[in-house]
């Protein structure tokens, strides 16, 4: 953290905050509070301007060539699973999926649209032999291949790709944010919607939730959502197995069993 002390000064209290890519920190000096990250995407500026993440205060390039971004560090809380049923979650996800500014910026950064076939191909490259030979994984892979022709969508949008409730932040000033954009892609909105509905919303409430979002619950959406949720579940099995987390690996295997 020496580079942070050089940037801010020794009077700041700096606390590691993790982060999937790059390094993230909280910094505090009296009443002043910052969330700092090294080499965050230029996409952050547009997310801030759109009010989707806490306000971006500044970016600075340091001697190493790394770029440091500083955002407002807000008091608030992460959403609980039951909070995901809120119409505000639907409204914000719709805002993200229909934002031309987000789409234009992420495309400028070189992100090409990714379809179901691309996701299946990338997934097959990451699965190890042990996972591939699990019977429910084999069944799930057969499903993904056989249903691939039904998963077509020609109006890709910016998708967050990890709409877990822990990534939704409600500030003390009652502002909702969706944070942690490291995995964003240009894809079918069913990628985000499917995960959110399957994980958090009772089936009998899907139509009402989608009414708030602004999309009808039709057969095409149902098929696309299921395909992406099956794919994400396989990816989760592989990820947790690679981390040696057997409980979580078993959870996602059981989840796949229930899905199929």
From TrEMBL:
Gene3D superfamilies the record matches: 3.90.1200.10
Domain Aminoglycoside phosphotransferase: 17-214
Pfam annotation, one family: APH
Record-linked SUPFAM superfamilies: Protein kinase-like (PK-like) (SSF56112)
Superkingdom of this protein's organism: Bacteria
PANTHER family named among the record's database cross-references: CELL CYCLE REGULATOR CCRZ, PHOSPHOTRANSFERASE YTMP-RELATED
Name this polypeptide is given: Phosphotransferase family protein
Lineage, opening ranks: Bacteria, Bacillati, Bacillota, Bacilli, Bacillales
